[in-house]
Each structure stands twice: as structure tokens, then as C-alpha cells.
Design brief:
The structure is a homotetramer of 247-residue chains.
Chain A: H1 3-10, H2 13-35, H3 42-65, H4 69-73, H5 76-83, H6 119-128, H7 130-155, H8 160-163, H9 166-177, H10 190-246
Helix pairs in contact in A: 1-3, 2-3, 7-9, 7-10
Chain lengths: 247, 247, 247, 247
């Protein structure tokens, strides 16, 4: 069979649908297996062998049809496809020792990203603002550090268990700044409460930034496409106009 | 009476107002009935009969005035209008067995969307980004899955009740990633806390995406209308200019 | 003294600063008075008399300098300025009975909005999207209603105290959909937890809408100003060009 | 060595990398020192001396290479660089009394902002909307005040410990409006719960504003750059066109 026909089949709707089903089934089986009292029961071994076999065939075929094999193998999807089969290698006699890596099968779920339309557009937009996002992550970590130091100062004497060290206080800082607020740790001193008010005010502002950034870059991309489409239309109009004038 | 006059009446302010009042009243009665000690009290049966009767008349009239009856019946509003009367059919002798479906009356509330201005513009915008939203939903489910697997790994020994299975851990993942944070389950091990910090960082970023997406599509729609209005004005100017030159 | 000079003084920096200080001081005194064991202590009566007197003078002067008195009295700021003095009328002998309305003094704080720059631009933007915001409020209330009905169905038997009625369940719905999540009420049944997952997914999406809407209308306003400024510049260029061609 | 070569070295990648490492190390040591049982252990004194020495050298060199020394010293980074060394002055004999200011070393972390790319673009955007942000902060404080007064009115009798005074109620207002929701304080009366529903509805709307504002100003900046780039391209086209017409 020639490679192009094979590619058409693999990237066709039927095979794609089967692979998507396998990815989902693999995740469900992983959960059931982990939650089961006997994760090494024969039916789990059997199911995992099926996933292992089919994903291996998929991987081999994808490498086979690719003209630039090395590029594919070291691409994001190439590595993910390999990671999807490696943790099941322990099923092969002689690789029993790899049993410990079985939990890595959770990363099989990333195979699904290949089939999600619009993921490319999102990652492109995120790539465009990667510097700003990195800046935000660093600023957030700085805020966590400062918040932890501050609350430790205010609460350490009243609640030595929860805020006795800066490291412990960081847990509070993360839970508070993300506005999760479990309620396992919270300030009780007036100073700590006022400090929390200030910190959350900044934190809520910080959380607003990624959404604003993303909005700007997505809007730009959309407006750009629009303007391009229009200027093309304008060019057409003008050239027609030009012809009219010539006549 | 001819159909057009009837349509004018049904879609007029008075009848619309009455229907809106009936929808609201129906929801209030549903709550009172459910919360009452005797949901089958005569006054509830009476009120429900009234809603049943009036909504039935409304449905029949709407079908009657519609030229393309089949299209209306299978449209969103057609189905909603039918669903609004079906669960009360048990009031009719011979349909008592449908009593079990009475809770479906809660969907009557969807009849109200017909009267909310600007809902169309919102659904249009959401429709425009449906692929990105679907991608986000899938990515969110993947994050929930990975977060549940991770926290299960860190906390299962310390808190077997809450994190003993991946399925149980998913409850924590949802409550944490939506930043609801009830506080019924939270990590207590250092590893679990650090993992939570990483997961919430990603989660807060994920929550920022829909707002950014929506902003971009709504902005595009607005700017587009603006540019259209302007280019029309420009066309007018240019043609005037052209006339000036000709003279 | 003529009205224009008076207006210049009242709207000048010094008087504005004094009024702002009085508003802040009035709020602080209101808190101290409420939290005090003896809210009718002489110094509180004295301070309130001072605020009453000065705000009354301010109100009378603002009415006096206004050419269209009726318009001002029934404008937003006119009503706020009146509401700022009415609740202290009980200080005047013969109006003791108004004592019960003293808590209305909290609305004095709204007088401050007059001095906040950029509030106009925000209210203008909010006004532009008032229909969408109204639609969102109605949709949110519908979601609260549906969420409350659903969780009541799942949890009423396990937690009759918290979810025994739909009305009680609404408290849970509000606390959950706003992502506040106090943790006083939360689902414990598997069905209730899955339902919560679905509801919060929709809820988080709903919360993203106002920010997207606002972004679009604010962006449009900014881009519009930009384009206007530019097209003016273009007009200048073109007319210059035209002159060049004529010569 | 001449100043320009020195500047090239200081602002080069190697020295920048070392300084970044020192800032991070200084923060880690600060945490370890605070959390240690003996913060005055010799190795902490030694490490702090190293940071003190190196940051002092950095500061002196930065002042030295700057042509406008006064401008640098009173600039944001100048003050931060000075604050980074001052709290360790107690290490110098004769300045022992400054020991109390040691906690100010946490501000060393701000030195890192110099190295975060994209921070300038963010602060520029925030600067553009500083008036709106200030308005939002004031409006938020007003909402906290009104929410605290309201909940105090509804809950003071049922929960005198938590809502007995308006000041205490402010803690609830902040925790609720930021949607943190620890769960240490929450309303239990029907009136208080309805009031909370109203307040959180407004609060969630308020939180949406900064993200919308930021999106608009960032989008404007991006679109502006785009339009500039394009109009330059247009100018080129037109001039070429002009030449074509002349021939």
C-alpha cells in the first residue's frame, strides 16, 4: 500500500474516531484500575495490552508514513505518542522492571489534543503573549512570596501551627490569591485581616491581566484578518477603478 | 380573525407581558409546591391547571399563526413551548401515569429567553467561538483528570477517605479549578500542596480564556459594524468628489 | 456675590477637597457610632449635626447656583445630595420620629462618586451594554433557579437541613455560582457532585461574559477615538495634496 | 576601565544572570532564616554578608556608570537597589541598631522586576488606565462599606461575634466580594442571605471591570501598531503609484 493512501486512512474520520475512543477508554480504564482493589486483575492486564498494541501500531504507522521521520519523532505529538506506549512496555517479558512507570499512562490523554480543533489557534495566541505570561507568573510568585512573609509577620504568634513559618504561610497565600479559599487557614488578627484585604485587592487585579492580554491578542488576530480581507477587496475596487479611468 | 392580526396580538406588548408574568408565576408556584408539605393540595392542582391551560392555548395559537408549522414545532422555541405543557398532561384523566415527569416543568423557565433582548447577540457571539469553547471544555476535562490523578497520588495515604480513589479526587479537582473551594476536601501533605499550587496556576489561566475569546469576537463584531458604517460614508464622499471632478 | 463666582468656589479644589473629607469623615463616624455602645452619646450627636449643617449648606448652595433648579433636584446627584441630609433631620426638634431612618446616612457615600474621575466613562460603557447586562442578570437568575431545583433533587434526602427545600438550595446555588464557596453547604451524594460539576462549568462561563462585553465596548470606544483622530489627519493630508495638485 | 565598557559588562547576560541568581538565593535564604530556630546562626550572617557585599558593589557600580546619578538614585530601580542593601547595614559595626529593619530585605525581590521582559509594556498599559483603576478601587471600597453596613444590620443579632460591629462585618465583605469565601463567617438569616446574593452579583460585575479595561487598552496598543505599520506600507504604495502616474 502506498504511503499517501495509508496517510489518508490514518488521518481519516474512521481511524481518528477509533483512536479518540481508545484514548478516552484508556483514561477510563486507568481510573477504574487505580480505584480497583486489584489493579493487576487479568481483565485490566488484557485491556492495557489492547491499548498498548493498538497505540504501538498507530505510532509505527505514523512514523512510517512520515517523510521526515526524525522531525516527527522529536515533535510534540511524536513524543506524546511514544510516551503513550512506553509505560506499558512492562507487559513485554523482560521489561517487568518498568512497572513502576505505569502511572505515566495518564499522559496518554495528551494524544487527544491532536483532535481538538481550535487548539492551534489558542496555542498560537498564547505563544504571542508568552513573554507577558512569563512576566505574570514571575510577578505572581513574587506576590505569593511577599504575601506569605507579610501574613507570617501578623499571624505567627496567634496561629503558630498555620503561619509559624513562611513556607507554611505560602500555602495560605496560594489558596487566597487564586480566590479558592478552602477555609483551612485564614487570618484572625486585625492586622492580618487588613493585610489580607490589601493583598487580595492586588491579587484580583493580577488575575484580571491574563484575560485582558488574551483578549487583546485574539482581537488583533481577528481584526487583522478582517482588514486583510477588506484591503484585498479595496485593491480589487481600485484596480477596477483604474481600468475605468483608462477607458 | 386573520392570522396576521392574531400574530400582532400574540407578539404585542400586552400578551407578551402576560406570558412573561405566567412564566415567572409558574416558577414561583413550582418552588412553593415543591417546598410545601402537601404538593398535591387542591390550590396547587388548580394553579397548575391554569398554567397548563394558558400555555396550551399559547402553543396552539403560535402553531396556528405560523406559516411553516413543522419548522416552528421543531425549532428551539417550539420544543420549549411543548415541553412547557407536556409535564402537566397528567392533569388530564388517562395521563395520570405522567405524574413522574412533573419536575420537567422547571424547563418552562426557558420560555422566558424569547423575551430577553440581546440574547440573540450573545448566542451569535458564542456560536462564533463554539469550536474554541468546545476545545476549552475538553482541555478543562483533561486538566480535571490530570489534577485528580496527581492529588490522588500525593494524598491517598494521608486522606484515604477523601482522596482514596481518582473518582473521589475529581470532586476536589472540580471544586478547586473552578476556585469555588468549599473546604470539604483540601490537600494536607507538602507534595499535595505544591501540586495544588501548580494546578491552580494553570486553572486560573484556563478560566481567563473564555472571557478573552468572547471579548475578541464581540469587539470584532462592533468594530466591523463601525467600519461598515464608515466605509459607506467614505463611498458617499468619494462619489461626491467624483462628481466635483467631472464638473 | 454672583452665581458664577460662587460656582467657581464650590466646584474649586478647596471646597471639593473639604466635601470629600466630610464624606469620608461621615462614613468613619457612622461606623464608629454604630459600633459604639452608646450611639446617642453627645459627641456623636454633635458630629452628626456638623455633617448635617455643612451638607445642608452645600445642598442649598448647589441648588442656588443651578440655573435649572428642577433638573438638578431630580438628577442623580441632586437626589443623592438630598438623601445625604434627610436622615439627619431628626436632629431638628419636631422631626424626632425620623430617627428610624438614620441608617440611611450610609448613602452619603454616594456623594463621593461626583469626585471620582473616570466614573463617567465607566457608566457610559455600562450604559452601552445595559441590555446585554440585563440579559445576563436574567440568565443568571434562571441558572440559580435551575441549579437550586437540581441540587434539591439530588441532595434533599441526604441533607434535608441544607437542601430540603428549593429556597434553601438557592443559597447553595448563589454561593457556588459566584465561586465564593463558603463551605457551609455542599453536595455529598455522587449525583449532586456530578450535577455541581456541570453547573459550575456553565457558571464559570457565565462569569466570563460581562468582562468580555465590557472589553468589547471599551475597545470600540478607544479605537473609534483613534480612527477619528486619524481620519482628521487624513483629511488634512488630502486637502494639502489637493492644493499641491492644483498648483 | 571606561564607563561604557563597564555598563556593557553590568548589563550583559553574565552579570545579569548572576544578579538574578543572587536575588533568588537571597529570597530563599530569607525564608530559611525566618523559618529556622536560630536566625542568627553564623552561616546566615555569612550568607547575608555576601548578599550585602555583592548588592552594594552592584549599587555603587550602577551609580558610577550613570551619567545622571541623581536621576538614577531617585528612580524606581535606584530606590529599590538602595533598599536592597540598607536593611543589612546592621552587619556593619555601629549600625547594630538597624537590626529591627532586617525584614525589609523582602523588598530585594523587587530588584528582579528589572529583568522581567514585558513588565514595561504591562506597566505602560496599567498607567494608561490608572484613573479608571483608581475609580474602581474607590468604588470597591464603597461597596465593601455598604456591604458591611448591610450585613451588620441583618446578622448582628443572630451572630454578634462575627457581625456585631460594622468593622467586623468588613472582614466578611472583603472575603465575600473577592470570592475567596474562607467560610469562617457567612450569613445565616434569610435576610442576610438575600442581601449577600445581591451584593455578590454586583461584586462579580465589579471584578469583571479591570479585565475589560485592560483588554481595551492592550487591544488599542496592538491595533495602533498594526495600523501604523500598514499606513506606512500604504504611503509607500501611494508614492510608488504617484511615480507611476507621473511617467
Amino acid at each position: 500500500m502506498n504511503k499517501q493512501r495509508l496517510r489518508a486512512i490514518i488521518e481519516g474520520n474512521i481511524v481518528s474516531g477509533i483512536i479518540q475512543f481508545l484514548i478516552l477508554a484508556s483514561a477510563v480504564v486507568f481510573v477504574l484500575e487505580s480505584d480497583s482493589e486489584d489493579p493487576h486483575a487479568p481483565h485490566f492486564i488484557l485491556l492495557d495490552s489492547v491499548f498498548f498494541g493498538l497505540f504501538s501500531i498507530e505510532y509505527i504507522l505514523r512514523v512510517y508514513i512520515e517523510p521526515r521521520k526524525r522531525d516527527f519523532i522529536f515533535s510534540f505529538y511524536g513524543i506524546i505518542d511514544l510516551l503513550a506506549i512506553l509505560p506499558s512496555l512492562f507487559l513485554v517479558p523482560g521489561f517487568r522492571v518498568l512497572r513502576i512507570l505505569r502511572f505515566l499512562r495518564i499522559f496518554r490523554i495528551f494524544k487527544a489534543t491532536r483532535f481538538i480543533l481550535a487548539v492551534d489557534r489558542l496555542t498560537e495566541a498564547l505563544n504571542e503573549i508568552r513573554r507577558e505570561l512569563l512576566a505574570l507568573v514571575i510577578l505572581s510568585l513574587m506576590l505569593v512570596y511577599l504575601a506569605a512573609c507579610g501574613i507570617h509577620y501578623f499571624e505567627r504568634e496567634q496561629q503558630p501551627e498555620e503561619f509559624g513559618t513562611i513556607l507554611d504561610s505560602m500555602w495560605w497565600a496560594i489558596v487566597t490569591l487564586t480566590t479558592v479559599g478552602y477555609g483551612d487557614v485564614y487570618p484572625i488578627t486585625p492586622g492580618g485581616k487588613i493585610f489580607t484585604a490589601l493583598v487580595t485587592l492586588v491579587g484580583v487585579g493580577l488575575i484580571a491581566i491574563p484575560s485582558g492580554l488574551l483578549a487583546s491578542v485574539l482581537t488583533e488576530a481577528r481584526v487583522e484578518r478582517k482588514i486583510e480581507a477588506e484591503s484585498e477587496a479595496n485593491v480589487d475596487n481600485e484596480s477596477t477603478e483604474g481600468i475605468d479611468k483608462q477607458t
